[in-house]
Every structure is written in structure tokens, then in C-alpha cells.
């Protein structure tokens, strides 16, 4: 056990342990991808069973809304296929793909992998580090959580604004049309019937926004939070010798000498992803030394370095859980985004000729949201990869030359293991990174060119 006292962090930088996924879990609840109530053990009251019943009803209602709209679009494509109206058929195919993916995400999160989802959230929430080890500098999870909330809220709001525009189109036209143009086996313009159909389509569009933003947004939140854990690891590795000195009860002269040797690394820019490094004065460090410390440097270093290794193993385990959860669906997601991007771009180019400005805005929003979703999947996977190869750099920022003989074997062992890069993949086939983002866009617009040539010949 460490004999170092817990540092008193300034109230402005204090970061207490909390649920890191509260917002994205609420989005999952809206989409019916997560239970409505908190899962509690012990005695269950009548309120618990009532909430469980409401949860089941809400889930089944969401399934009904998505499936019935999906079936209506399939029937629409079948009925109007012989007309040869490529723009209308492509528009129907877009909605068919969107609702199929929405339904698949609901099933995957709620029924296929609910245990793995729960394990992943609980594993990160229970074991994440709130701040780096004591040393001349420190970082906390405050910056990563702030960026996580900013990114996820921006993405979710953009998705819901896009659906609101779709719902606003019939109101703008004032012709009792529907947000989603598809075939119905009855006259939906009749009083009460129109309001009911409009309500079901509105619910369906809200479910699309919630399902898309929850599935991709959770991936984004995981990437940012684990990057925050990497920041804490980098700072702890950089200050591992300072932590060791505190463990062994070093005096002020020894701390001052070590601080002077480490000052060179403190001037380096872009050491962290989302954290702001804070300084700890020598007086504050001296106050952290507990009574009865062992003067053996090697024992103190093993203890301090061991905590860094424990944090590194925790991050890798979390990444493996994330990879196991997401790699099956991202393989299909790459294909779905490529297909959807091509179809939306085609419909947009066709709509510029005759349709209204409002419809062009809505389709433009759809295209931007598809690109945005693909970007956050690939970019934050790339962030994870870049951090996985930087652990060795963080370790070299410590003044290792002062104790080369004692720490050489531990440093070399860590450096060899840190060279193992971690890549998030799509079905263990494609590596998710910025190059994949660029390649998918290129493929999508190649298909768009082919589709435009087919339309020109028709």
C-alpha cells in the first residue's frame, strides 16, 4: 500500500467520481435501447414492477413503429417499381435502409448484447481514475468529461433538429401530406386518421434520431473518456519518479533536484488530449509524505510504477470490451453509410432541379449527418490508436537518467509492451481511422457517379 497522503486539489479542479454516461444513457432510454429505470437489487416494490411494465410496453411500441414503417416502404418500392421513377424509388430506399438500421440497433443494444453493454458501462464507471498520481504536475478527468458532454450533446441535438425539419415539411406545405411519403392501404387524409398516421411517423423519426445518435454517440463518448484515462496515465508515467520520491520520503533538496531535471519535459506542447496540466508546488508535495516511509528507492519505484501498469491494463481491458461490443455492427455500418451517402447525395442532386428549397435543406442536413456520423466513428477510433502508441513517449518524459541502473529493466519491459498498438476495427476486417473515413467517402461518390449515369440512360 502507498504511504502517500491524498492530495488536496483546488475546488476549481476537483473531480469527484460520478456516472460518466448519464446523458447518453438517457438518449438510449428515449430510443428504447436501455431500461427506463435504474436496475436495483434487493426488495422490489410495486413501483418497480409498474415501471418494468411501462418499459416493456414502450419497447414494443417502438418496435411496432419502426417495423410498420419499414414494411410500408418495402411495399411502396414493390408497388411503384414498374413506374421507373428512379428518384422516388431511391428516396424510398433511403428510408428503408434508415429504419432497418434503427430496428437493428434497438435489437442489438437491448436484446442481443445488453449484458456486454452493462458490463462495459459498469467497468468504466467503477474503475476509472479521477486524477493522476501525485507529482510535480497532475491532470484530472474534468477536461475529458467536459469534451465528452460537448460532443455528445452537439451530435444528439443535430440529429433531432434534422428530424424536426422532416416533420416541419408537411406543415410548411399545408397540403395534409406526410413527413414520409409512402404507400398506405387506406386513405390517410381522412380526419383523425391523418393525425394518427402523422403521430406514428413523428414517433418513428424521433426514434431514428435517438437510435442513430445513441449508437454512434456511445462510441464517441467511450473514445473521449478513454483518451482522458490515457491523459492520466501519461501524466502518472511522466511523474513516476516524483511519486517514487514521495513513497520513499525524500527531503526537499532531493525533490528540488528532481523537479529541475523534469522541468525540460514540462515545456513540451500537446502532451495530452483533453486535459489541462496543473502544477504542484514543492511545499504541497512535501505535505503529502506520510510518516515512516521506506528510504529504499527500488521498493518505492515498484509501488509507483505498478499503479501505472494497473491503469494501463484497465484501459486495455476497457478497449477490448469496446472492440468486442462494436466491431460486429461497424462492419455493417461502413456498408450502410456508403450506401446511404450515395443515395442521399443522388436524391439531393435530383431535388435541386424542381423541388422546393425546404426539401433541399432537409436532404442537405441528412447528407451532413451521415458524414458527421461516419466522421465520429473513424476519428475517435483513430484517437484511441494514437494514444495507444504514445505510452512510451510519456515514460521518456520522466528524468529516467537519474536512476538508469535501478529502473532500466522496468522501463524496457514497459516500452516493449507499449509498442503493441490497439486498433478498433469493423468486423476485424477494416481498421477504423481517418483514412477509412476518406476511403468510404470516395467509394460512396463513385457509386453516386454510377447511379447518375444509370439515371441519364433511363
Automatic annotation (TrEMBL):
Q: Has keyword Lipid metabolism?
A: no
Q: Which InterPro entries match?
A: 7tm6_olfct_rcpt
Q: Cite the GO molecular-function annotations of the record.
A: odorant binding; olfactory receptor activity
Membrane-crossing ranges are: 60-82, 88-109, 150-172, 330-348, 360-381
Any Pfam family hit: 7tm_6
Principal subcellular localisation of the protein: membrane
BP GO annotations: signal transduction
Per UniProt, subcellular location reads as: Cell membrane
Keywords from UniProt, A to Z, are:
Cell membrane, Membrane, Olfaction, Receptor, Sensory transduction, Transducer, Transmembrane, Transmembrane helix
Q: How does it sit in the membrane?
A: Multi-pass membrane protein
* Superkingdom of this protein's organism: Eukaryota
Where does the secretion signal sit in this chain? none
Any one GO cellular component localisation term in the record: plasma membrane
According to its UniProt record, which protein family does this protein belong to?
Belongs to the insect chemoreceptor superfamily. Heteromeric odorant receptor channel (TC 1.A.69) family.
In Swiss-Prot or TrEMBL terms, this protein is called Odorant receptor
Q: Which organism is it from?
A: Drosophila busckii
